[in-house]
Each structure stands twice: as C-alpha cells, then as structure tokens.
Amino acid sequence: MPQSLWPTPFSPSNVLAVILGGGRGTRLLPLTQDRSKPAVPLAGKYRLVDIPISNCINSGMLRIFLLTQFNSASLHRHISQSYKFDPFAGGFVEILAAEQTLTDESWYQGTADAVRKNFIHLTNQPFDYLLVLSGDQLYRMDYRTIVAQHVGSKADVTVGTIPVTRDQVPGFGIMRMDPDFKITEFVEKPKDPAVQDAFRLEREWYPKLNIESDKELFLASMGIYVFSRKALFDLVGESLHDFGKDVIPQAIQSHRVSAYVFQGSWEDIGTIRAFFDSNIDLTSDQPRFNIFDMTAPIFTRPRFLPASKINGGTIDHSLISDGCIINRAEIRQSVLGLRSIIGESSRLERTIVMGGDYYETDSSIKQHETEGKPRIGIGKNTRIDNAIIDKNARIGDNCVISPNGKAKDLDHPLYFIRDGIVVIPKNGLVPHGTTI
Description:
The chain is α/β, with parallel strands linked by helices. It has helices at 50-58, 73-82, 111-116, 119-122, 143-152, 193-198, 205-208, 229-235, 243-254, 272-281, 362-370, and strands spanning 15-21, 41-42, 46-47, 63-68, 92-97, 129-134, 137-139, 157-165, 173-177, 183-188, 217-228, 257-261, 266-268, 309-310, 313-316, 319-320, 325-326, 329-332, 335-336, 341-342, 347-353, 377-378, 383-389, 394-395, 400-401, 410-411, 416-418, 421-424, 429-430.
C-alpha cells in the first residue's frame, strides 16, 4: 500500500526489528543438516538471512535482533563477520540465542514464544513499534511503508499480506478485511474449498489495490508483523506460542489488526523445490527478484577473493560468484558459489553449486588423489543437471548426476533426492565414474 495513503510521520529509529531464525528447517534437509535455515547460501554469495537484514538497513531500521536456536554456529559466525555499524549511529545486529534460565528451562515453542522469552532483552531498548520478520524469505520491501500504514491507521497490530491463488491457500494463513483494511476474520491453512470460498478477495478490491489479474485471489499472511509496544506486551502471553495460530486470531477479537497488502516479488524458501526454483530464476533475463537493484542493495559478508577465472568454455544465463575457476566447461542456467572449481569438459545445467569455504592446498589434493578421491569441486567430463551441490563437496571425474528416472524423494549414502532435485550434502563425496 503506498505510503502516501498513510501520511502520519514516524521515525525509523523508533522501530525495533526482530528476525526469527530459530526453526529446525526440516523441509530444507539436507541443506539444514549442519546449518540453520537462515544460514543457507543464496544466489552464490549471500545467505537467506541477508535478505531481511538488508531490507532493514535500506529502510533505516538499524536495531536488529536475530533469534536463533538450532544449528546456529555458522549463522552466528556469518553475522559477526558481516554486520558492524558505526558506533555513533546506535545500530546493531545482535544474536539472541535460545537459553535456559532459572525460571524457564524450555526452548522456543513457536514464533511468539521466541519473542516473549526475549522480552527482557527487548525492553532494554527504547521502541514504539516492533517489526517481526522471518529469516527465510526472498523479497525486497521498504519497511517504512508497512510501519507508516500501521501508524496512520492507528492499528495495534499490522499483518503483512500478499495476494495468492487458490492452489497456494492451504499453505498460508488467510484473512478477510473491511474497507479500512481492518482484518475481520483469519483462518490458518484452510483446505476445505467451502471455507476458502468465504475468504476470496472481492473483485471491488482489485482496482483499489492496483491488481490487474483476472484470477480469483486470497490474502495470505507473509509472517511479517508490526506491533505497537503496548499491544505487544498485552497480546503475547504465556500460553500463546505462535503468531499465526494463536496471537493474530486472538488479537482480531480484542484489538485493531490491520492488513498491509504487498504486491512485489515474494518467495517463502521453505522447501528444496522453492529454494532451487528461486535460485535458478535469478539466472533468467528478468528474474522476479532483482539482485542487481542497487537502490536497495543486498548486503553480506565482505570477502577478499580474486575475480573468477574462466579458462574457456560456454556460460549461458548463469551467476558466477567470486573466486571461481572454470576450465573449458559448459555452464547453463546455473549458480556457482564462492570458490567453485569446475573441471574440463564438464557440463552443468540447472545446477546450484555452493562452492567451497576454502581453497584446497596442493598437498591435500595430492593426498586425495593417492586415495582415489576427487578434489573439492566438480571433476572433469562430468554431467550434472537439476541438482544442488552443497559446500566443500567432492564430485569426481566422468560422473553423471541427474534425477531423471528416479523417485521424487530418495535417501542414498551418497546423495538425496528432494522434490525431484538431487542434493549432494555438505562435505559429500561422489567417487570418480559414479552415475546417479
């Protein structure tokens, strides 16, 4: 919704941001086997958590808490190495890890519970509005617009929403709103078509929201919330564990809850298929999410790597990150992460290579060769399509990796197949001459 419709002024310095990064990320396994979901690499050189943090920075909201719980070591390391603010500006990105205390020994039981258990830390900061964000979504938003609507509409809670089609409805919380954008009804992930029909967005809303689609649409929760300070402490009680399931439905009954309608590109990176498709889409001529938009850049850890070296070959519609070495290979619709090594005469199509955390030494390469094992990277004369190669993986010479002709989901000692995508896990090894 255009900010001009809600002209009440506010200062971004009065907003405190909380990014939820504590979930197990089970649907992204095996990418989340050894890392938390927000720490999963994205677009070759970023992490998922860089998206909401960058949106905050670009919106002038520089006080950011990141709530973590599972497999959080690499996420903590990334944050500590990436985000350092001018001490005079008062900005920070601070980790709030789940902790046991003398009064509470339980871990986070849900999104709202995670925020409630950190009230002691939040109240140490002055703020009028709390912005609650997810750490695993791909979108670009100026958060000043949603907070401006929240302030201008005198809402207690504002829920970020996005129009979705009927086939997407069972995966979201769906709501209805009145002409003043006040949410009147909310239902979590409805599967009954009759219930869905009751929440269909009326056609008279389309011109008001600048929607040109002729499809039937529904308003879905994005998992983005703005709370006024008093409403936050009134609503997030001891027995309410989740914002979508517990807090928002109850708040509708007792407080003014407003809907902010967002219509830009937005993806919930909740599954291997969603993660894969979002990355591959970045290689298209006009991707839904434009990482080259420097009016609102995506920030990440600064690295001191050499430019990528291409010793011949063919590269078509692909992203090549820093420090890669490509030896007369064919790369199509693929994303190569930092320090990716691609062997001669290999062919990659619709493949995500996450690269390496380091360059392997000559002695390490020779030792592995003596043991009949490949070096880190992709070997010679290897064919890969529709696959994700996680960090530090060793793929041998003369290999074939493809999901064609295999089950949609499969576990194997060398690899996994999820949603029809082959995944080679972090530090995985595929011997020379292997066909998958």
